[in-house]
Amino acid sequence: MNEFILFGTTHLLTLFIIFVASFGFAYFAKSNYNEQSYLSFEKFFGYLLIANELFKPLVLTTFGDYRWTNTVPLHMCHISSYATGLFLLTREKRFFDFAYFWGLGGGTMALLTPDIQFTFPDLDFITLFFGHGILFFAIIYITITLKQQITFSSLINAMKYPLYMLPFIYLLNLGIDQIADPDYPPNLWYLMHPPGGASLMDLFPPLFQNPPWHIIPTMPLAGIIFLLLYSPFYLSKEK
Q1: Which one, out of 16, 159, 160, 200, has a CA that is 20 to 30 A from the CA of 32?
Q2: Is 113 helix (H, G, I), strand (E, B) or coil?
Q3: Looking at the domain assignment, is residue 136 inside a domain?
Q4: Where does the pLDDT of residue 204 fall: very low under 50, low under 70, confident under 90, or very high at 90 and above?
Q5: CA-closest candidate to residue 98, choices 158, 40, 153, 24
Q6: Residue 90 structural domain
Q7: Global pTM value
Q8: Is residue 3 in a domain?
Q9: What are phi and psi of 25, to 5 degrees?
Q10: How many domains would you assign to the chain?
């Protein structure tokens, strides 16, 4: 199996397919959107996002070198997929407040700097790009086709909810680690050790590259990224 090359031909081609499919379909659907016509599609996609994350651990443990201890589907992108799926099923705005910022911000970073070792057709490559790809597709669809608005309070909520969840996720890591095989430790939200692949954490000062100290620079960095994601809505409102 060939090693994954960051921004190599396979990586760039995969990103191209995801981005073109996402924006192309969103603008196509926007031009002829009818709520009744697209209702079944939106419900299907909502269930797909949720089911993919719930069944992915079964696929990884059955066909890959994984155990349940390092496949608990509670990473930030997993939660973003649940939130996006629930928005498509319920139209509850609070779900999209979280999904837009963490799914588009964190999910796009996962696509650009994936934490994988081998390239296509490795199982890790397929599951990572499929899961993050459909999440990106859904968020772009909701933003462009459904014209879902993001407000400053949405940004505040996106920063607030993870802070509430952070202690629970850290304690869950510690609890699972007590019973996990040393070769299959938990690493939810990368609170236990850095990602194996390249990431923005590599740019942090050495002290802050190792969890849990990476939380200190990560929060203001997330704030900057979220402000950039919010800026098109702010500028559109001002205009």
Answers
A1: 16
A2: coil
A3: yes
A4: confident
A5: 158
A6: 9-238
A7: 0.93
A8: no
A9: -70, -40
A10: 1
